[in-house]
Design goal:
It contains six helices and five strands; from the N terminus they run E-H-E-H-E-H-E-H-E-H-H. It is an alpha/beta fold and 167 residues long. The structure holds 5-O-phosphono-beta-D-ribofuranose.
């Protein structure tokens, strides 16, 4: 558990400790942008009651987005979304057997009625889910908006100031 001092605005959850290698990229982005967040292992099939409790309490605790990473038959994001109106951002973790295609399809193919915003498989998806959560918060949290703008400006400058790939 790595919680920031302020009340968390974003919850990062994952189906297993083994997902942390991927999901740490979401936490790192939120940390860099100054977004208060919490991190938990919540498994749809190993700890279903915890999943329900987490979803039921999310809005009341002030969470404004939940980034949920899972691999294989990845039920976690969809089940969370079914139990809370807090937006769920799904990150397909790259599985060993099917390289994450199983994770991607089981997260993205939600039937109409309960949406899960789905990101790329693996590290890029985790990082982008965090950036997306920050963008969602930016209108109401100007400090987060400023951090996001600064990050994007630096990213642009880094390319422009080093655009010769041979050096
Ligand atoms: C899913 O099963 C987790 O999200 C993880 O990606 C996958 C494998 O879990 P472990 O067997 O490594 O705990 O529930």
């Amino acid at each position: 558990m790595t919680d920031t001092a302020q009340a968390p605005l974003v919850g990062i959850v994952m189906g297993s400790r083994s997902d942390w290698e991927t999901m740490q990229h979401a936490a790192a982005r939120l940390e860099a942008l100054g977004v208060p967040h919490e991190v938990r292992v919540v498994s749809a099939h190993r700890t279903p009651d915890v999943l329900f409790e987490y979803a039921a309490g999310a809005a009341g605790r002030g969470l404004r987005a939940i980034i949920a990473g899972a691999g294989g038959a990845a039920h976690l994001p969809g089940m969370l979304a079914a139990k809370t109106q807090v937006p769920v951002l799904g990150v397909p973790v790259q599985s060993r057997a099917l390289n994450g295609m199983d994770s991607l399809l089981s997260i993205v193919q939600m039937p109409a009625g309960i949406p899960v915003a789905t990101f790329a498989i693996g590290n890029a998806g985790a990082a982008n889910a965090a950036l997306f959560a920050a963008a969602m918060l930016a209108a109401d949290h100007h400090d987060i908006g400023a951090s996001l703008a600064a990050f994007r400006a630096k990213q642009t400058d880094d390319v422009a100031s080093n655009d010769d790939p041979r050096t």
